Amino acid sequence: MSQPHLRTVVVLAAGEGKRMKSSLPKVLHPLLGRTLLGHVLAAAEPLGADRTVVVVGHGADQVRAHLAEVAPAVTPVLQERQLGTGHAVRIALDAVPDATGTVVVINGDVPLLRPETVAALVEAHESDGAAATVLAAEVPDPTGLGRIVRDGQGRLAQIVEERDATPEQRALREINAGIYAFDVARLREALGKLSTDNDQGEEYLTDVFALLRDAGEPVAVHRAADHMETLGCNDRVELAGLRGLLRDRVNEGWMRAGVSILDPHTTWIDVTVTVERDAVVDQNTQLRGATVVGAGALVGPDVTLIDTVVGEGASVVRSHAVGAEVGPQASVGPYAYLRPESRLARKAKVGTFVETKKATIGEGSKVPHLSYVGDATIGEHSNIGAASVFVNYDGVRKHHTTIGSHARTGADNMFVAPVRVGDGAYTAAGSVIIADVPAGAMAVARGQQRNVEGWVLRKRAGTPAAEAARQAREGASEPDGAASEGD
Ligand code: UD1
Ligand code: MG
Prior knowledge:
The protein is α/β, with parallel strands linked by helices. Among the domains are: 7-230, Spore Coat Polysaccharide Biosynthesis Protein SpsA, Chain A; 339-448, 3 Solenoid (UDP N-Acetylglucosamine Acyltransferase, domain 1), CATH 2.160.10.10. The protein has 10 helices and 37 strands. The chain has a 19-stranded parallel sheet that branches. The longest helix is centred in the middle third of the chain and has 21 residues, at 236-256. Residues 482-487 have low confidence and may be disordered. Bound molecules: uridine-diphosphate-N-acetylglucosamine and magnesium ion (MG). Magnesium ion binds next to loops.
């Protein structure tokens, strides 16, 4: 015998979302760190439901794969043909035959819904002992939505879809948000009685309300405090609108928590990101995924951080980082590209036009200019000369370079991996380091310089270069003034 379920959540996500004009199912479109569906599941999460069922249909394989990744405890249920929201819920409940108590049904395309709002709906529903409660909102433009029709006493009479509504009903601005709480037993019974006698020939979940009411069951309306939470998303224009609203909500939350966001209109922070107090986020900045920005850090302007951890007091300016770690008080950019597994220790520096990948850069070490550091370990307090390349790829495999602590490598070095440079070693500018450099040694790995005297005067006679050289040579042999005397 399985346990009775006290609360069940059903998310409806089988629709195609035709107007998105996308090969991606609508509910999988991303919105600041989660898919639309992911946002809805997150809003339902604190209910602590015993079971969560997601009705899948269009793009079912993609939706199932996504669920396995972000919400493995959820049960996907296939609705092969989209015969309406009532049909979808009926199929969902078939998968949880022993469910008792409350079932919360949420349309999969309302990503701004807050957990507190779902909780308040369920709380009102359960304390009223209602058979069914609908979340409603008063909206400026109800176009396309189901209207809440009330009777003479102000009680819910029915929910009518716009296409089935009379002109008077269409004028109503109180709408059905597509979020409901039901007593599961009474819902099951009512679902069995749904007709398809409507403009779309579908089984409407919303018809359950009039059926229950007519049977003398208590049905209720719960008003959402903020109608923006109930906004759905039917095309990419609406999706962009929701993105802007969510951006504002997220930014406001961080500012109230002690983060300075200098230009909230150009700052996009995923809901999955953490920003600590006194961090400063400058304009045109995107913080995505599992990114964490530490206390007092400065990020921006013009920065994108994806799954990147920035330590306290660090600074990242005009740069792009993916899967990187920037240690406390470290400095990055302007114009750096940190690729996965770049790890900068405390006070390390990755400067301008520098790319790093699988690189550990020790405390206080610097890669200031124009370099590529891949598959490398650099010790502490070392300096890598400008325009250096860690030559990690032999065309088949990648190899590692190790630089010790307190090393000073010259500008324009190639470190042909695998190779090691010892502690306190130096390398000369322009060196191609193909062999290990012992601790404390100076490696010089470049051709000897040879000057061919007078070459330009002979081989490029008559050019401005030759003329400049001639003047310089004459000047050197016959400088003006007293200095010429000793010559
Ligand atoms: C629905 C409501 C409407 C409400 C609006 C809020 C009904 C009949 N109408 O209308 O009153 O104002 O939501 O946004 O419910 N789905 C399935 N299987 C189906 C049909 C739909 O899983 O067979 C899913 C969709 O993927 C979507 C949700 O159910 O996530 C709502 O369906 P949709 O077609 O968008 O309904 P609306 O016309 O928006
Ligand atoms: Mg809809």
